[in-house]
Design a protein that fits this description.
- The structure is a single chain.
- The protein is α/β, with parallel strands linked by helices and 491 residues long.
- It folds into 3 domains: 17-42 and 45-80; 114-358, Type I PLP-dependent aspartate aminotransferase-like (Major domain) (Aspartate Aminotransferase, domain 2, 3-Layer(aba) Sandwich), CATH 3.40.640.10; 377-490, Aspartate Aminotransferase, domain 1 (Alpha-Beta Complex).
- Helices cover 43% and strands 12% of the residues.
- The chain has helices at residues 17-36, 49-54, 66-76, 99-111, 121-137, 151-167, 171-174, 191-199, 220-232, 255-265, 283-286, 321-327, 360-395, 420-434, 461-490; strands at 144-148, 181-186, 207-210, 236-243, 268-272, 297-301, 313-317, 400-402, 410-415, 440-444, 447-453.
- The strands form 2 sheets. A 7-stranded mixed β-sheet has the order 1-7-6-5-4-2-3, sandwiched between helices.
- Helix 8 (191-199) links the parallel strand 2 and strand 3.
- The longest helix is centred in the last third of the chain and has 36 residues, at 360-395.
- The chain is globular, with a radius of gyration of 25 Å.
- The termini are far apart.
């Protein structure tokens, strides 16, 4: 006796495929509408109390129709995103995202490939991206690369590779074994470098934070002196981290000089090029990356200057073996074969910590193929011109003060007043809430600074107008509020 089975026995498949198709088309149409009209809405709006309450329930609840779930998305999620798609977003080093990447992300989810290993096209896509990166950075044929969440993870993996390079394979079984190691990075290096040292079991005290020179680059003179002092104390210099694009001001360390020092000291040279490494595609930035090809590893993000939707970090090393030395773990359930699904000698899981990995390569491949690296270069050059325009406006106004060179696409400045730290912090907060532009705060030379990081390719002079006008208007309002408060307190 036979039994008729439903079209799909899976409780996760749509009950009505045609209705599902219609819903999918509507989602794409709505997304395109959102992207086309970004400038008409605010950069950011905080979730309302009602929205927060909707996400504070303790149970999933009964299954709802996909159309109803999508309606909840439109009401409670889409309007309250982080804002980095918007042309007025200029607070942090985040890309605006290429629309084609969003569609590619949908396709990747539909394919649902686990890119930890095995023989399928997702692995070939990732190898293609690594090959492209090898050419961009002048790395040898022995190089290998893989996608990770972001440069934070990539920097951590580079610390592990440098640790194994210095101490040998036994470090995986016996740990540091009392070895005294030292790593070096400039004061303006990203905080994830400190975390990487902690997570690697080496400790933050082993990271020497070298002061910058007048151009906010690592002082090579101070670096050489610190390495000499460590050697004299019986400490092994095992890692030098060069920064290609500091988060505060966008400074580039002298990578060629760092490569020379690494050669002299035997240390591993790693470059944190989270956004700056992709500057190889922009003539105005490429010269700052001289010496990049001499690094042993580079961390960078496609989701910054590359405009790939989050997340799409990448680590590339000059010698694939340096990653397999750290991460390869032969076990029976991951055994390889010459043919079949388990074919392939080296899988991505041999190069990094993850076995379960989505296909970040597909959206990156789509953006690179559809837009080209020329688009990256054009967007970078444009952002540099905007930064120069903003710097000129700041310099021309007696109530504004620039706090750092604007040599790249990050401009740090403040409103000049009696209590600048407190007042500029309030200016930024109110600008973000108002929603026309969203800069952020940092500290330059101990001074609170408004920071405009111009990474969104949708940003124009219109947003610069709004930033300058907003800072001046709010500065005046806050000064008046402060004066009024003083008068009330003394009356």
């Amino acid at each position: 006796m036979t039994r008729d089975l439903p079209a799909s026995a899976s409780p996760f498949d749509p009950k009505d495929w045609e209705a599902f198709r219609v819903l999918g088309r509507r989602m794409v149409d709505d997304l395109v509408d959102q992207l086309q009209t970004l400038r008409e809405g605010p950069v950011w709006r905080p979730p309302t109390d009602q929205v927060r309450a909707a996400f504070a329930t303790e149970a999933v609840g009964a299954p709802a129709a996909p159309e109803a779930v999508y309606a909840e998305y439109l009401e409670n999620i889409a309007p309250y995103a982080s804002g980095n798609r918007h042309p007025g977003f200029m607070g942090w080093v985040q890309g605006g995202g290429a629309p084609i990447g969003a569609l590619a992300e949908m396709l990747a989810a539909g394919l649902n490939m686990n890119c930890g290993g095995r023989d399928h096209v997702g692995i070939e896509l990732e190898r293609q991206i690594a090959t492209w990166a090898r050419g961009w950075f002048g790395f040898p044929d022995t190089s290998a690369g893989l996608f990770v969440t972001g440069a934070s993870q990539a920097n951590f993996m580079a610390v592990l590779a440098a640790r194994s390079f210095a101490l040998g394979g036994d470090v995986r079984t016996r740990g540091l074994g009392g070895a005294r190691l030292a790593a070096y990075a400039q004061v303006g290096a990203h905080a994830c470098v400190v975390r990487a040292m902690e997570m690697a079991g080496i400790g933050r005290e082993a990271l020497r934070l070298i002061p910058p020179d007048a151009d906010f680059r690592i002082s090579t003179e101070a670096l050489r002196a610190q390495i000499a002092a460590d050697r004299a104390a019986g400490i092994m210099p095992f890692l030098i981290v060069g920064t290609a694009g500091t988060v505060d001001v966008g400074a580039f360390d002298d990578l060629a000089a760092l490569a020379d020092i690494a050669d002299e000291s035997g240390a591993w040279l790693h470059v944190d090029g989270a956004f700056g490494a992709l500057g190889v595609h922009a003539p105005s930035v490429k010269a700052r990356l001289e010496g990049l090809s001499r690094a042993r590893s580079i961390a960078f993000d496609f989701h910054k200057w590359g405009q790939v939707p989050y997340d799409a970090g990448f680590l590339i090393v000059a010698d694939e073996a340096r990653l397999t030395d750290v991460f390869s773990s032969p076990v029976a359930y991951l055994s390889r074969s010459s043919t079949g699904l388990a074919a392939g000698e080296v899988w991505p899981t041999d190069l990094g910590p993850d076995l379960s990995r989505g296909c970040r390569a597909l959206k990156t491949w789509f953006v690179m193929r559809a837009c080209g690296t020329e688009a990256i270069g054009e967007a970078i050059e444009r952002s540099l011109r905007l930064a120069q325009s903003l710097a000129r406006r700041i310099d021309a106004h007696d109530r504004l003060e620039r706090l750092a060179p604007a040599e790249l696409n990050i401009v740090c400045f403040r409103y000049v007043c009696e209590s600048p730290d407190e007042l500029n912090a309030k200016i930024v907060e109110r600008l973000q809430v108002a929603g026309s532009v969203a800069p952020s705060l940092t500290r330059i030379g101990g001074k609170v600074s408004i920071r405009a990081a111009l990474f969104n390719p949708r940003t124009t002079e219109t947003e610069l107008d709004a930033l300058i006008a907003g800072v001046l208007a709010l500065g005046g309002e806050l000064e008046k509020e402060t004066d009024d408060e003083r008068q009330r307190s003394t009356s």
